[in-house]
Amino acid sequence: MPYLKGKGGIAIVNRPEWAQKSPAMQAYYDHDWGFAQHDEQKLFEMLCLECFQSGLSWALVWQKRPALLEAYQGFDPAKVAQFGEEEVAKLLADPALIRNQLKVRATINNARILSRWHQEGRTLEQFTWSFTNGRSIRMEPVPGLPLPAKTPLSEQVATEFKRAGFKFTGPVVVMSYLTAVGVINARLA
């Protein structure tokens, strides 16, 4: 049985199979994945990372996260929104990053939309949590089985992302995003 040492002593932590594959994935599950996230920049970071993950393993994306954070200036949407062709060329040439042109351009596009939202007084946090009235909804995972790739909620959120002009935010990517940021709480009890 896995244990996590916390402020109040030692707590038993049940982890899904994917979180037991490496120390990095274990730390990600224990400290990040599935906890309700409301920080605007962290939400944008997770949305970007989930977009980058499409077709790749999460372990690879998480391994490249430090380089991605540096290259995308901490996923500050106002900064990423200013990226032009010179920055795109640098990002595509850097082997430490995920160099898929569609994903790179989608990240910049999404930053521009989010920056526009901020100018209008809207936030990704408001958008993300509006579909559940600001509350996490519980999805009881079945031990040994993967979570569903998409749900009616992720399809609804993906439709609204698309309507707003976001790229690489289909229902499967959005499902991963919603569980990663705790809108859908699928942590093992």
Name of the CATH architecture: Orthogonal Bundle
Please identify the top-level CATH class: Mainly Alpha
In DSSP terms (H or I, runs of 4 or more residues), the helix count works out at 9
Instruction: Give start-end ranges of low-pLDDT stretches.
Output: 1-6
- Please state the average pLDDT score: 93
Class of secondary structure makeup: mainly alpha
SS elements, strand count: 4
Pfam families: Adenine_glyco
Protein name: DNA-3-methyladenine glycosylase I
Organism: Limosilactobacillus fermentum
Compact summary:
This protein has 189 residues and is mostly helical.
Break the fold down into its secondary structure elements and pairings.
Elements: E1 3-6, E2 9-12, H1 23-31, H2 40-53, H3 58-71, H4 77-80, H5 85-93, H6 101-119, H7 124-130, E3 137-138, H8 152-164, H9 171-180, E4 184-185
Parallel strand pairs: 3-4
Antiparallel strand pairs: 1-2
Q: What would you say this structure looks like, in words?
A:
With 189 residues, this protein is mainly α. The chain has a single domain, classed as Endonuclease III, domain 1 (Orthogonal Bundle), CATH 1.10.340.30. The protein contains nine helices and four strands. The chain has helices at 23-31, 40-53, 58-71, 77-80, 85-93, 101-119, 124-130, 152-164, 171-180, and strands at residues 3-6, 9-12, 137-138, 184-185. The longest helix has 19 residues, at 101-119. The radius of gyration is 17 Å and the shape is globular. The two termini are 13 Å apart. The model is unreliable at 1-6 (pLDDT under 50).
